[in-house]
Amino acid sequence: MKSLVRWGVTLGLVGSTLLGSVFTANLKALALPDEEVAARLQPIPVFTLADAQGSPLVTTVPLREGDSETANVAGVFMSQQDANAFLERLKTQNPDLGNSVQVVPVSLAEVYALEKSSQNQAENLDFAFIPKQEQVQLAQPVWRQQNPNGQESREFQGVPLFVAKAGQDQGYLTIQPQEGVQIIPFFFEKQQLQTMVDRYKGQQPNQANNITIEVVPLEGLISTLQNSDNPELSKIMLVPSQESQQFLESLRRNSNSSK
């Protein structure tokens, strides 16, 4: 599997940003080519269990309850800590299996590419994203507030991504890197978004009462990127969690020290 060392340079995009304007497009009305989808996913490290040959640990599950038809599923952890904890439990419960695999970091873009390529094979390989439970708990009240009349399931399902809207039209709040291109950040941690919102309120106090936080599932956003055709989708950026940023920074330091 590919190294993540090259990802360290992407952190600069998040570092020194200025809060920008409000972007008014509606994501539901929004397809990007596969390479553009991969570009949105590339900066995000995820963690799976794999053997020495790099083959992911796969379990077979029924497609539907009581159905004889099955699917091959590999777990993809959004948190390295969660992946390590799962591996330790596996070593205790099934030592032979647990000691034959290890936690392997891969790009979310690589997971996307593997799943796409497996669709043309006799046996599909599906990936189940495993979110950080703390963020799921933070997403629940936001999700319920978004869907007060039960238009959606009252329980949030999937990996939560947090995004802010502002202004009378409730457009997506953007940030503007030094290159000057406005982007719409989607955060894996609600705390990271709150920091951005608080900074915006400090710069634009007259807009303080017009800011709302929303949550969308990562799986739904990927589907939107695949199936919509608005070029403004290229403004979306996924912001790695603090844990993931620390992981990427450690890779960057190790890479520099080995040169």
Number of domains: 2
CATH architecture of the largest domain: 3-Layer(aba) Sandwich
Q: Would you tell me the structural class of the helices and strands?
A: alpha+beta
What fraction, in percent, of the residue positions are helical? 25-40%
Poorly predicted residue ranges: 1-30
- Mean pLDDT, as a whole number? 79
Beta-strand portion reads 15-25%
- Give, in spatial order, the strands making up the sheet with the most strands: 1-8-7-10
| Number of separate strands | 11
Distance between the termini: 21 Å
Q: Can you tell me the CATH class of the largest domain?
A: Alpha Beta
Q: And the CATH topology of the largest domain?
A: Trna Endonuclease, Chain: A, domain 1
Helix count equals: 9
The string of secondary-structure elements, in order, is HEHEEEHHEHEHEEEHEHEH
Radius of gyration: 19 Å
Question: Any overview of this molecule?
Answer:
The protein is an alpha+beta fold. The chain has two domains: 11-43 and 132-252, Trna Endonuclease, Chain: A, domain 1 (3-Layer(aba) Sandwich); 45-130, Trna Endonuclease, Chain: A, domain 1. 37% of the residues lie in helices and 25% in strands. The chain contains nine helices and eleven strands. The strands form four sheets. A four-stranded antiparallel sheet has the order 1-8-7-10. A hairpin with a 4-residue loop joins β7 (160-166) and β8. α2 runs antiparallel to α5. The longest helix has 16 residues, at 242-257. It is globular and about 60 Å long.
